[in-house]
């Protein structure tokens, strides 16, 4: 009898919460097991009900959170799917991980779970400890300040505000607000509400509230009918793969983008709408999993600095280990830290890290009722401890190699179907010939028991949990081979 | 021995979680008890630590969530304060209420607490049930759709988007997007991202992200240095008190505001920036607790309709019973429901209710990773059941009478200090002669054991929990008398 099976049996004899560490894998089924097509009849019935109050067109299936475990999502029809999308890249430890269960079962945590404080006016000792012991240890080097928030979108919005305030403060040279600024601000007018801009990228995604949406350019459906800002939008590299065979051309593409970025800085300065910050993902995710080279990012940082703007790296989707490093921007060997780094999703809480000069000197400028949530930081702490104890970033690096090599093999075998395999860690993707093939492939994979995500026009992305191992990667690759044969 | 004291003793013999219902009051101390000034030395020490990573200037004291109970907040120095501000109006049942504790102690809830799903793609049966059994029963009449969100600000932002989409959809007369719209939207330009506006009010507050902030006009410090939209800003009534002695003048003020609102509709239509929606609080809260008459709101609704715009009532601070009705706008006897109603704070989750025509026909237009949180709806369900079982809205109505009459008496006694007492339910406020007196009064009250909130330039607001009773109101009124004597 295998060790893992023994461990599994031992776990069955204990309560789920007593199972520790890697045992979550021992609780998993041996592979996907499908009873119906997706969505099954029970999912469809629930979706009909949902239709009364919500638009159900984005619903894929109805989730059974009680039965889902580890890397496996179970739906209300009893279909067991290997989930490499993990609730839009937001579950770092898969489903029902004992480390997170323990947070809610520990009676010492009860009053923190029950009483959500307004942290801006009444922080708690536990929260202050969480800042120090949970958040600061993961801060990108040189970013001494951290502000928890509720979600990715409001993390970006508030980080944008911190950048606008930092910029105005520099120009004010320490002077206080003048009367004209105070009065005009109340009517949305300059100089109180100045005309300044944030530069973002074609294909970028930073959220869907008005400020974040003005920096989002992945798909028209997100933006149609919503008023926006006149902010500069630069091209982001579109590399040819395999990288090693297209170095010269890809370098040229870096040059093209950087030249346009430089132009945009000047154009917007000339039209009195100066760029105060540049907002960029380390890997454009929602837009189609597009990568920029370390050189591109190093030069982007240099350009941004030369133009007196701030560099914000949005790690909402890339942060917390999936790329094989804790922060994806660590892959770029930047000469210094970005100025602001935003996070959310796997962290369970939104927020941003920033250099101390990005902290407004006055109160109530970066503020809201909740300013984050201690309960979410309890969960994050459990996640970070598990990631460390179980070497999950190392695991992601190793599993990522298996996955990417497998995708490269599939690319060789099915060179008209599986295109441009790319990735860092398990944060991998590939393209398909067009959107209709891609969408059909996704449906086939799902019905074969693999839940994947799409992105951009023609890409499929992998966003598994950090407990996704070589064994799981091989199941996915085998199923992809089976499905590819049918195309 | 009094019954309440007996109950208190009985509770001491049980575990806290076994105490049910009104027994939360029996667990409370008999009144405030102060050991130090606020902030005490321990709070100050914690605040120094917080200073390393955050701006601590808005911190009032550091909260001991373990010791706080019912209407009483306890700080880390052991000061026991009667809290009539309740974490910026966000705790409906005070601290450590057994009904909320039970949510986290019930092992049936564990997998819902542990696995936060991406509800837009993978709703759960429990969530679908929560929509039906928790949210829909509290929907304002005629609003059939509900969309949970994360916080008040993003609830408003998404409601604004729903309104913009509704407006564009009407103008498009059911046609699909054209090529020019699709292309221009990706560059933040019209016609894809059209020039349309939301009307808001001087003194209004709707949040701090870019869209919400463009409708916020309560204080310059919220808005300074942040770019904004050219959106119309109308005056909101500024009544003279007592209302019954100033009817004619206050009616004139309604006329003044309504005339300007009508003008603004025309001005913005003329400059091709049509108003698609009007965004208004039923009681302007952050801006200074300013009220509008039922007639004002009825005529505002009529004007909005005549101008083909949507009426959004922001009940983030007023919703869930504090005004003596579940929704504050129920006081206005509007001929029909507002088109959209947003909520957050006491609800523990953000969100909005809307007429079904405000639900976009396409997926991914109102969307984000989480789309709310089932765990928060579990808490909301427990809150709503408690509010019903214990008749807490009726309690708030009765207690509000005692509180407002007491404030009116104080106004008579200290007519140069306690000005313009006003309110609905316990959602009460009064003005002071100027900001410096107001700020000083707040400090004195706090050091006397009453934690209150300020708003606007010169106001003090009451935002107690719904378990705030006549007994608590009298403690506050007595302390106010003591403190007023010193001024």
From TrEMBL, chains A, B:
One Pfam family recorded for the sequence: Aminotran_3
PROSITE patterns on file: AA_TRANSFER_CLASS_3
Keyword GTP-binding annotated: no
EC nos: 2.6.1.19, 2.6.1.22
GO MF entries: (S)-3-amino-2-methylpropionate transaminase activity; 4-aminobutyrate:2-oxoglutarate transaminase activity; pyridoxal phosphate binding
Keywords: Aminotransferase, Pyridoxal phosphate, Transferase
Uppermost EC category: transferase
CDD domains per UniProt: OAT_like (cd00610)
GO biological process: gamma-aminobutyric acid catabolic process
Keyword Manganese: no
One GO term describing the cellular component: mitochondrion
Swiss-Prot/TrEMBL cofactor(s): pyridoxal 5'-phosphate
Signal peptide start and end residues: none
Similarity-based family: Belongs to the class-III pyridoxal-phosphate-dependent aminotransferase family.
Protein name: (S)-3-amino-2-methylpropionate transaminase
Organism of derivation: Rotaria sordida
